[in-house]
UniProtKB/TrEMBL annotation:
GO terms for cellular component: cytoplasm. It comes from the Bacteria. This is phosphoserine phosphatase. Keywords: Amino-acid biosynthesis, Hydrolase, Magnesium, Metal-binding, Serine biosynthesis. InterPro entries: HAD-like_SerB (IPR050582), HAD-like_sf (IPR036412), HAD_sf (IPR023214). Its EC number is 3.1.3.3. The lineage of its organism: Bacteria, Candidatus Nealsoniibacteriota.
Length: 229
């Protein structure tokens, strides 16, 4: 195995703790999208959109989240409420110690997420990430109302594309990169990374896709697989 130099993390459920939700389906992952719909009082809309996605009414993840943003806009999501949710997201147990130690050992660290750019930026500041790639950037107007959104296809199969792109920009082969994830949307990338770890996951099909399984909900458990460079 090539020497790992760059470590990619999924964000929701890995660096950020997601509490109180359960998704059993093979097409849907638990994420901060759940929390945003829940804390704005329209979780029933999230459930409706999720069922449509599972049934194939949205051919792609991008079309699903585009409609989700439109629904959030329709229901009056404000910047203040959104940032209140973003800033209240708890870090995963051991995240600060783990990222500090990995950087001390010489690794570059990155996030690829199908979640919100605002949260990825906050986590970058808190944990000292080198790179962030996030799916959804919500843009609010001067009155604090949701005006528009920008989406990039960096979830499910799209994670592989952005994984490869970031590695190439750093003159690294995929075999020199690790990926830590926890959900169905991470499965396509597990087989591409030089080292793949599934962390704190309850889904057997996801566990089978990764090389290493960590059940304990403490991110420091991954450190044993990353010696000093």
């Amino acid at each position: 195995m090539s020497k790992i130099k760059l470590i990619f993390f999924d964000m929701d459920g890995v660096l950020v703790d997601i509490i109180g939700y359960n998704e059993n389906g093979k097409k849907v992952a638990i994420s901060t999208w759940n929390t945003v719909f829940d804390q704005t009082g329209i979780y029933h809309e999230h459930e409706r959109l999720k069922e449509l996605f599972i049934k194939g009414n949205f051919p792609t993840y991008m079309e699903w989240t585009d409609e989700a943003c439109r629904v959030l806009q329709k229901h009056g999501l404000t910047k203040d409420k959104f940032m209140e949710i973003i800033n209240s997201r708890p870090l995963m147990k051991g995240a600060e110690d783990t990222l500090r130690e990995l950087k001390k050992r010489g690794y570059k660290v990155a996030v690829i997420t199908g979640s919100f750019k605002a949260l990825a930026k906050r986590i970058k500041e808190l944990l000292g990430l080198d790179y962030i790639i996030a799916h959804c950037d919500l843009i609010f107007n001067e009155n604090g109302n949701l005006k528009q959104w920008q989406l990039i296809p960096c979830d499910f199969e799209g994670k592989v594309e952005y994984f490869n792109k970031q590695a190439k920009e750093l003159n690294l082969n995929p075999s020199e990169c690790a990926y830590i994830g926890d959900e169905v949307n991470d499965m396509p990338i597990f087989g591409k990374a030089g080292l793949s770890i599934v962390f704190n996951c309850q889904k057997e099909e996801v566990k089978k896709a990764a090389g290493i399984i960590i059940d304990k909900k403490d991110l420091r458990e991954i450190l044993q697989y990353f010696p000093n460079l």
